[in-house]
Amino acid sequence: MAKYARGKKSQAISDRSGLRVPYTQLKTTWDGLRVSPEDWEPKQPQLTPAKNVVDATALFNPRPDTDPENVKIFIGFNYDPFLDPRQRPSIGVHGKSNVGFIGITSTNTTQTGVAGTANVGNESLFVESQINVTGLSGTGSVATVSASYLEYAITVGAIAAGNRYYVDSVLQQQLYLQEGQTYRFDQSASSNNGHPLRFSTTSNGTHAGGSEYTTGVTTSGTPGQAGAYTEITVAAGAPTLYYYCTNHNYMGGTSYTPASGTISLAITVQAIAAGNRYYIDAGGPALTISLTEGSTYRFDQSASSNNGHPLRFSTTANGTHGGGSEYTTGVTTSGTPGQAGAYTEITVAAGAPTLYYYCTQHNYMGGQLNTPALTTIVGTVPVELNAIATGVGGTGAIGSEALIGSPTATGAGGTGAVGNESVQILGWGNAGWGEDGWGE
Prior knowledge:
By secondary structure, this protein is an all-beta fold. It has strands spanning 11-13, 20-22, 27-28, 34-35, 101-105, 109-119, 129-132, 143-159, 162-167, 170-171, 175-176, 182-186, 197-200, 212-213, 217-220, 229-233, 241-245, 253-256, 263-272, 275-280, 289-290, 296-300, 311-314, 331-334, 343-347, 355-359, 368-370, 375-381, 395-398, 408-418, 422-426.
C-alpha cells in the first residue's frame, strides 16, 4: 500500500498571501484555499445571505436627522482676505525694530518788516537723534504661507475573503509615510460608505487588541461622501503604522514611517511557483508601491539572494524583456547585487511617469512604481502701509533742532520770507517676520 510523506520538512506557498509557510502548518479556509495560520479567518456572516427576511422600507415614528452639516476646514488662511489689513490677525513672531523713515517738514514762515531790505544772515540746523533698537532681525515684507500633502485615493472592493481597501487602485498597498510629511487618505468614493479609515500601531487595529493612533491625525466628513478624508502628519520618531477599518476585520495594510532623507528599501529575491520574484521589505511578491516626486529611494541589494539579479527601472512593464528601455533619470547604482553596499537609487523627478522595476537578467521579477506628486497650497498675506514706518517694532527719538540767524534789516516796506526746510532721516530697521507697528 502506498504511503504519503509526512511533510515535516516540506514548504508550501499560501494561496492568499503568497508567502512561504511550513507544509504542516497549512490550514484550509471555508472556500477551499490552503493558507498560513496568519491568513486564515472564519467565514464572514455577510457572505451567507439571510433567508426569508421581510424588512419594511418605512419606519414607524422615525426620528429626523438633526446632525449638523459637515465641518468645512480651510487650510492656509485664518482671516477674511478682503478685511482691512490693519484689522487682520497677526502672523508670525512679535518683535521690535527701529523706525525706517522719518520726515520732518516745517511750514512756510513769512516776515514783514519796514520798507527797505532785509538780509537773512546765517542759519544752522542741529538735529540730534538717539535710536535704540531691540527685537529680532528679519524682513518686514509680504508673508507667504504654504502647505503640501500627498493624497491617496481610497476605494473599497470585495475579494473572496471579504472587503479590502485599495490605495490608488492597489490592493492593501504597502505604504511609506515619511516623517514630517502630510498624507491625505481621500474617502470621497461611495464604496467607502461604512468603512472609516484609521491608524494603529497594531496590525488590524482595534480588531486585534490594538488602539487607535491619533498623533498628527485629523478627519473630515463622512466616508463615502464628497470631501471625506483622514489625514496624518507623521511625527518624528513615529512607529510603523497600520491602516484599518474601524468597523471590519482585515481591510487595511502596512504603513512604514521612514525618517526624512533617503528612504531605504530592503530588496530580497524569493522563488514562487512561477519563478523568482523581488520582495520589498519582506512584502511581495513583486509589490506595487508609490514613490513620491522629489524624494530619494534606495533599493538595497546587499542580501545574498540578489546575486545575479541587478534591479533597474523602465517606463515599460518587465523593462527590456517587454520591449522597453532602461529609465535612468535621477538613477545611480553602486556595487554588485548580493554583496554588502550594493544598491540602485533613484531621486524621483517632477512629472516622472509611472515606472516599473525589473531584473536585467530575468523575466517578470519586478512590479509597478506609482509616482504621485505633492499637492501644494500657497497663500500670501499682503501688508499695506500708509505711514513711513517699516520693520519690526523699534524705538527712535528725535532730539532737538535749533535755527540760528543774524538778519539785518534797513528801510521800510520790504518783505522777507524764510523758505521751506525739511530733514529726512533714512535708517534701516530690523525688518521682521511678524506683527509690525504702524508709524505716525
